[in-house]
Amino acid sequence: MELSQRTGIPASRIYGVATFYEQFHLEPHGRHTIRCCRGTACHVKGGSGMIRAVQRALGVEEGETTEDMLFTFETVACLGACALAPVMVIDGVYYGKMTSQRVKTVISSLRSLQEETA
Predict the structure, then answer these.
(1) Taking the model in full, what pTM does it have?
(2) Residues 2, 40: one domain?
């Protein structure tokens, strides 16, 4: 590992730090990160359907990034917005009371915005 050689820090220590913190990624991430809650309130209110809708809309599984590098999809234990259940966050913006149709609409809207600015 080049970073280890340059800094003199053992590669195992660098890897340990990089994998400990959620903000560090070993793989490239998409321009937009979609996080879906899988907490109790979201689960009870249909969160698994929201997660499946995101997977279908993006064509990726949890932890993967779309081929166009536009979206990375993650699930989290809790987003702390139980009153909005089921909830997902895209780039820090909360989307509550999600349905399969709303997932499609939000993702389509983001795709359209990207095409307009490209």
Answers:
(1) 0.82
(2) no
102 Cβ neighbours under 8 A, 6+ residues apart: 95
Question: For residue 20, what are the contacts with CB-CB under 8 A and spacing of at least 6?
Answer: none
Q: Which band of pLDDT confidence, cut at 50, 70 and 90, is reported for residue 22?
A: low
Quickly tell me which residue has 């779309």 as its tokens: 66
Edge-to-edge, what's the strand order for the sheet holding 93-95? Answer: 71-76, 32-37, 88-90, 93-95
For residues 35 and 76, the answer to whether their CB atoms sit within 8 Å is yes
Find the helix or strand (DSSP H, E) in which 72 lies. strand 71-76
Per the structure, the complete domain to which residue 12 belongs is given by: 1-27
Q: Give the C-alpha separation, 89 to 78, whole Å.
A: 11
Same domain, 58 and 97: yes
What is the distance between the alpha carbons of residues 118 and 115, in angstroms, rounded to a whole number? 5
- Digit-coded pLDDT (tens) for 67-94: 999 999 999 999 999 999 999 999 999 9
